[in-house]
Amino acid sequence: AFPYAFAAADLGATSGRVIIGRVGRGNLDLTELHRFPNTATRLPTGLHWNLPGLYQGVLDGLREAAKAGAVASIGIDTWAVDYGLLDADGALLGLPHHYRDDRTQDLAERVRDEAGAEYLYSVTGLQHLPFNTVFQLAAAQDRAQLGIAKTLLLVPDLLAYWLTGAVGAEITNASTTGLLDAGTGTWSHDIAALIGLDPRLLPPLREPGAFAGSLLPHVAAFTGLPTTTPVVTVASHDTASAVVAVPATEPGSAYISCGTWSLAGLELDAPVLTEEARAANFTNERGIDGTIRYLRNIMGMWLLEECRRSWSARGLPADLVPLLAEAARAEPFAALIDPDAPEFLAPDDMPAAIADHCARTGQRPPTSQGAIVRCILESLALAHRRVLRRAAELAGRDITHVHLVGGGSRNDLLCQLTADATGLPVVAGPTEATAIGNILVQARAHGLVGDLAEMRRLVADTQHLRRYSPQGGRRAWDAADARVGGPLSDPDPV
Ligand code: LFR
């Protein structure tokens, strides 16, 4: 029943893993083979990803995959935006920066204002985030490297290059750079020229499903996989892979891909490049098969994870399950934050940042851990509501139900609060949406599944999903919403 096994290397901001997906007609089964931490490291040059270490994690996982049996192909997805530069010999010039590094903080706005925010959006349709690739490339530190660089590779493309020796730029991830023309789906030489970037650094674009290359001999020798094992280009932006695996089988659905970030929005056939969309900071990132991921970034579980990290460093309890139980008992709507406030992007001490934000907005800061968790989850649920309502207005669509996928779908309280806040039924799961999307695109390249609808039907039929109905309290949520600010229009969100 499971004739093919595909290896998905799926790297998130806090951990990476290699998962084997077995796919047959009507069957989809996942096994996690290897998981490794992803810890950012601060060097004198800023906050960096330990990319060789992550690559070694991928290799170790692939070795496990080889032990487990035949591997039909390999696919790689990671977070977006970040990149490495290669010189003429293919050597990596410096360790890639982490998107939470602060070197673009003021620069991003300067570049945007000089170029014209309206102009940038009209070409790229990309939300303004201070870490968009285009702003990172404008940073002084990169200037020296850019002088000798010959190739720019986004993180999953760089890992694929190390596995195969072949270069390319996968298009869903390229659409997060601020250098891709949303209309034509090609690199924008005009925007490259604006920041003085030689467009020859940008590799040829490749579509999900395309063959990327086969394994270099030393990779084959280490992993035990044959050199003929293909690396298949998947939707290499993790969020794009997650959207592939949204188990939507009926019209009217919106999605929230909830992990470190909450990415909330709609799948559209064409970008919405209106001035209203820009003012609300909606993005038009690419999905597979020419679809548009019309969504907004919301700060997501990062807020909670960073609290847990700081509690655990101080010797306080940090286990999720008891914290969520405490949060469920805490007073509703006691304190609310705007999760997208810039001070939450990379604070040293998240609980302190939340307390400051509450004090600054005239609220009594939550003191117990349960109250802080409640504040985070209610605030996220409200942000989900605001973003989805605005997306529906801007795209002229009706939303009848919400799919919440990713690690956050395990969080019962967040799922229920999201149903309550939006007033819509929430279908939670799959948790492993990103890896599933990665695997399905590989399976399709092997002719095992058809279009997006068929892939999603397979997910809906095989994965464990939970349903949450809104429990009322409509007035209280309306009042809470009014407290944190009305429609999305802040010109300088994170
Ligand atoms: C989620 C994600 C988001 C992107 C952010 C930074 O993991 O890929 O889509 O905006 O990380 O790359």
UniProtKB/TrEMBL annotation:
Pfam families: FGGY_C, FGGY_N
Domain (Carbohydrate kinase FGGY C-terminal) ranges: 254-445
Domain of life of the native organism: Bacteria
UniProt xrefs under Gene3D superfamilies: 3.30.420.40
Region feature Disordered, mapped onto this chain: 470-494
A GO molecular function held by the record: rhamnulokinase activity
GO biological process: D-xylose metabolic process; rhamnose catabolic process
Chain ranges of the Carbohydrate kinase FGGY N-terminal domain: 10-244
Keywords on record: ATP-binding, Carbohydrate metabolism, Kinase, Nucleotide-binding, Rhamnose metabolism, Transferase, Xylose metabolism
Family: Belongs to the FGGY kinase family.
The protein's name: Rhamnulokinase
Organism of origin: Actinacidiphila oryziradicis
